[in-house]
Design goal:
Helix content: 10-25%
Strand content: over 45%
Number of strands: 36
Largest sheet: 33 strands, mixed
Radius of gyration: 45 Å
Structural class: alpha+beta
Shape: rod-shaped
């Protein structure tokens, strides 16, 4: 061959070899990619062998399909984990579990795992997990993390765990990530992050955990943002059913709450089927939410749920709830075994807001109570459940600078109260300023065990209450003056019609008053003014004594006296408190001078015939009764008809009988 031919052949084969090498390399790459992406299912015998190997602990592992690929590692489909020696639903199940890793000739097989991914994981919080007497003990699990293990210590190298679109302990999580590592007899969870997507908010919690197999103790620390709904589900999982009652009253929150907490779980000694000891602590700080419909500007709460030695205790201290116009502070210690709750409470919330927070239904007193300034309330005691061995007992104090109780305006009011059980409330050391005077007393509210109407027992004393101030406060334009003092004991029914069945007795005293200017005496002053010109000016300044008894809503007045410098008046009769207008029915008599003075006694002897002629019958509504002159002729006719003659100081049957 000529040199030119040799050169051509060399170039031809060179190009051919290069093309062939390129084809081989491309084919090898394509084959490698195909092998990398291809997933091959394990045959059924291999799957059963793998199930048996994974089920050597206290649980049994089942799955529907297993596959292997160079790109996705080992993948298990429809995985279920069952407790041994127990029937029922699985402890957890997952749509897919994927293990990824790399083969290292210089490392043991346990170190080949780089990451584990769970898809569609469901863990039921209401199933009992196996105790140490079932299957392997916890001490046996430590062999998996022992460096002397022939396969190597599991998780000796941190393994990334990812859980996606799962429901864990009843909480729907969008994504959970953490690193799992071990050190001999300890297992650590580092850099944990839980993302929870609720219908309104994206919530997140970060934390860490550690489990000591030797000490048999789990310690968890976390912090992040959660809504009360998620906190409730966590408490249910941790057997804190009594805790969730605290969170179920919250709602309408505009942002998740800032939550930080820790949990210590101490398992029983090996071989002993005893409940674990739990110490869970949570602090909550949030704003923009409602409690029982009350908008809160801020909420701070510290919670401890303690289970140890068969005893349980829930402590919430402190709880600070702030609104736009007040604050409430509360500390609670709840003992489920005793069905009792010890607490302390203080509040500067407005009255209606406080009643709403306490879910107190409007009662006889509260419906007639109007608070004009913020009341200060403090209380402490024990609330007993229906299964408790003793009754509830609460002691407290109420202070309010300005309020109206029924038609009476009170200033600087204060009272101590005691609640006994569910059927008795006592108000003691009641004191207040009342229209220039003072008010003292006590009250007892009793409710029948059968749930009938309550009874209110009232002891009331008032000293030097200004009549002018009282009338001015109710918008009445009047020149009536004087100071009133009252001493009374009443028993009232627990209904809105307090006076209809009232029973009791008392005395009303008026000093330096213009009693005859009261509308009830208008008929008398008109009569005297028509018959004795100018005499009405002599009747204005007077004192009064009004003793009374009340039986079933009927007030009986005996020896009512109004005494002035020139004239005095006595009366007997009744007033119906259970009828509209409070109608009066009685007899009055006008005399000269004060009855218990020397001048009065002498005047009575001299003017007795005249006084007999100055008698009146009074009847009709208390604010505008009719005064009918009861002269000598009418008295004679009454004596003929057999009606006994009456004296203003006596007790005529017709006037004192109950209508």
């Amino acid at each position: 061959m000529t040199p030119q031919q040799n050169l051509f052949m060399r170039r031809f084969f060179s190009v051919l070899f290069r093309l062939l090498a390129t084809v081989l390399v491309a084919g090898g790459c394509l084959l490698g990619v195909a092998l990398w992406q291809a997933a091959r299912d394990l045959p059924p015998p291999a799957c059963r062998w793998l199930e048996n190997r994974l089920s050597q602990g206290p649980v049994s592992v089942l799955f529907d399909r297993a596959a292997f690929s160079l790109s996705r590692g080992i993948e298990l489909r429809r995985v279920r984990l069952y407790p041994k020696r127990r029937l029922g639903a699985p402890l957890f199940e997952a749509d897919r579990i994927q293990l990824r890793g790399r083969v290292y000739r210089s490392r043991q097989p346990a170190a080949w795992i780089d990451s584990v991914t769970f898809q569609g994981l469901v863990i039921d919080p209401f199933l009992a997990w196996p105790v140490s007497s079932q299957g392997l003990t916890l001490q046996d699990w430590t062999a998996l993390f022992d460096p002397a293990n022939p396969a190597g210590a599991l998780f000796a190298r941190p393994v990334a765990i990812t859980i996606e679109d799962s429901t864990i302990f009843g909480i729907a999580t969008e994504r959970v990530t953490f690193a799992l590592r071990s050190q001999r007899d300890r297992l650590f969870i580092d850099n944990a992050r839980v993302d929870v997507q609720t219908p309104r908010f994206r919530e997140r919690v970060d934390g860490e955990a550690a489990f000591d197999f030797q000490a048999r103790r789990l310690q968890v620390n976390l912090g992040g943002t959660l809504t009360p709904d998620v906190i409730e589900r966590l408490c249910l999982f941790l057997d804190g059913g009594d805790v969730v009652e605290v969170f179920r009253d919250f709602g309408d929150y505009r942002a998740p709450l800032n939550v930080h907490g820790s949990m210590g779980l101490q398992l029983a000694a090996a071989g002993r089927d005893e409940p674990a000891s739990l110490d869970m602590r949570v602090t909550v700080d949030g704003a923009g939410l409602r409690f029982r419909g009350i908008p809160l500007t801020r909420l701070q709460l510290s919670l401890q749920w303690l289970k140890a030695n068969g005893q349980r205790k829930l402590t919430l201290a402190p709880i600070v709830a702030q609104t736009s116009d007040g604050q409430a502070d509360l500390a609670i210690a709840y003992f489920p075994q005793r069905h009792e709750t010890d607490f302390t409470f203080s509040s500067t919330l407005p009255g209606p807001t406080l009643l709403q927070a306490l879910r107190a239904a409007p009662g006889v007193v509260s419906s007639n109570l109007h608070v004009h300034t913020v009341p200060l309330v403090s209380a402490s005691g024990t609330l007993a459940g229906c299964l408790a061995s003793r009754a509830s007992r609460i002691d407290g104090r109420l202070v309010c600078d300005d309020l109206t109780l029924y038609p009476v305006r009170l200033r600087h009011a204060r009272a101590d109260f005691q609640i006994h059980g569910t059927n008795r409330i006592e108000l003691t050391d009641v004191a207040a300023n009342c229209y220039g005077g003072s008010l003292t007393g006590r009250a007892t509210v009793v409710r029948s065990p059968t749930g009938g109407l309550a009874r209110i027992d009232l002891e009331l004393g008032a000293e030097n209450v200004g009549l002018a101030e009282l009338l001015a406060d109710h918008g009445a334009k009047s020149s009536i003056e004087g100071q009133v003092s009252v001493q009374t004991r009443l028993s009232l029914p627990g209904s809105t019609q307090l006076l209809h069945q009232a029973t009791g007795a008392g005395r009303v005293t008026v000093r330096d008053g213009t009693i005859l200017r009261v509308p009830v005496f208008a008929g008398l002053t008109d009569f005297l003014g028509r018959n004795i010109p100018g005499v009405d000016l002599l009747l204005m300044q007077s004192d009064a004594q009004l003793p009374f008894t009340i039986t079933n809503g009927v007030a009986t007045i005996r020896d009512f006296r109004v005494e002035g410098n020139l004239f005095s008046l006595t009366a007997n009769g009744t007033c119906r408190l259970d009828a509209p207008g409070y109608p009066l029915d009685g007899v009055t008599q006008l005399r000269f001078f004060k009855q218990k003075t020397l001048a009065g006694m002498l005047a009575r002897l001299i003017t007795l015939p005249v006084s007999k002629m100055m008698q009146f019958r009074i009847s009709g509504p208390v604010m505008k009764p009719e005064w009918n002159y009861f002269g000598i002729v009418e008295q004679i006719m009454d004596s003929i008809r057999g009606r006994p003659e009456t004296d203003g100081g006596g007790e005529p049957d017709a006037m004192t009988r109950e209508p």
